[in-house]
C-alpha cells in the first residue's frame, strides 16, 4: 500500500506559520523543531513546492534582490486544504524506525552480553536528546505568552520530553533488573 503523502500538508503548515518564506527557509524548518519528529530533504521539498504551485495551493513570487529566490504564500485554496487536513482525526499510529528496539527484539538469551551494551548506549543517546529537548523548551518557550501563541508546538515538545524521560527510566529500571539477576 503506498505511503500517504504528508509533506504537502507540512509545507502548507510551515508557510501558514511563516508567510513569504523561501524554499531554503522551508527546508531549514526540518533542521529545527519539525525535524524532531519529521524529516524531509531539499530534494523532496522543492519538487513538492513546484507541484503545490501548479495545483494552486500556494503561489510564488521572485525576490527583488535575487531572481532565483522565490517566496511562497498560501492561496485561499491552500489555506482551506490545510484547515481541512488539520481537522481530520489521526487514524494510524506513527511508524517507528527504532533500531535499538529492533536489535533488542532479536536477542533471545537474557544473559546475552550485548543487552547491557545496547542499553548503556541507548541511555547515552536519550540523555543527550533529553538535554537538547529541555534546552529547546527554554529557548522556544521562555514565558507563558510564547506557550499560548504556539500551544500545539509546546504540547509536542512536552510530549517528546515526557516520552524521553519515560524511556530513560525504563532503561535504568532494566539495567537494575539485569544487575540483580546476575
TrEMBL record:
Top-level taxon of the source organism: Bacteria
Organism: Limosilactobacillus rudii
Domain Transcription regulator PadR N-terminal: 11-83
Family annotation (PANTHER family): NEGATIVE TRANSCRIPTION REGULATOR PADR, TRANSCRIPTIONAL REGULATOR YQJI
Protein name, UniProt field: PadR family transcriptional regulator
Domain named Transcription regulator PadR C-terminal: residues: 100-179
